[in-house]
Amino acid sequence: MKKNINIIIMGPQGSGKGTQARMLAEKFEVQIFETGSVLREIAKQDTEVGKIVDNEINKKGGYASWDILKKVLNQKIGEFDKNKGIVFDGTPRRMEEIKYWENTLPTINRTFDYVFYVDISEEESVKRLSVRKQCRENKHLLIVGKDLKEKDTKCPICGSEVFRREDDTPEKILKRLEWNKELLSPVIKYYEGKNMLIKIDGEQSVEEVFGEIVGYIK
Ligand SMILES: [Zn+2]
Hints:
Layout: E1 6-10, H1 17-28, E2 31-34, H2 35-43, H3 48-59, H4 66-76, E3 86-89, H5 95-104, E4 114-119, H6 122-130, E5 132-135, E6 141-143, E7 162-163, H7 170-193, E8 197-201, H8 206-216
Helix pairs in contact: 1-8, 2-3, 6-7
The structure holds zinc ion.
């Protein structure tokens, strides 16, 4: 069912928004714009922006500043497939990004059609993140006990090696959640104010969350 729609999907870490983005992409034949993977892809490129991103994110282990992200977005915006919708995962994550998209999307004949917030409690986030592993090649997030067994060493999706992130301790997880919440709360308020925010209970099963999201899409 091809739909040329533009969707924002937000949520705390562990909310499963990435999985929902992939399911939406499949169902409606839309492309995914996922900030994390875009940054990782850019970091591999031997360009000025690529080197800056690699240094800030991979070498310093920080988050992309707005200055850098803007350069990345400017580079990526021309690469969208005109005939397909987009699921935005990981952007907009701050007010500057909202302004950026609001200015640039109309230039490519787009506008945000749906804004979903997949909500889970802090306890649930911590619980989910402490049982997760990641694969090296594609950074697939995998849940121990669900996607793979504790002793498994290969990603069930792409076959590359899996590992547990060193910063996935409860304290560090909580710190990241706080940081994200702080960053995201003005964005949530903004879309609430515009009457566009659709809150989804993320503590249901993956299929139930998806069913609810799809139910809103006309
Ligand atoms: Zn993988």
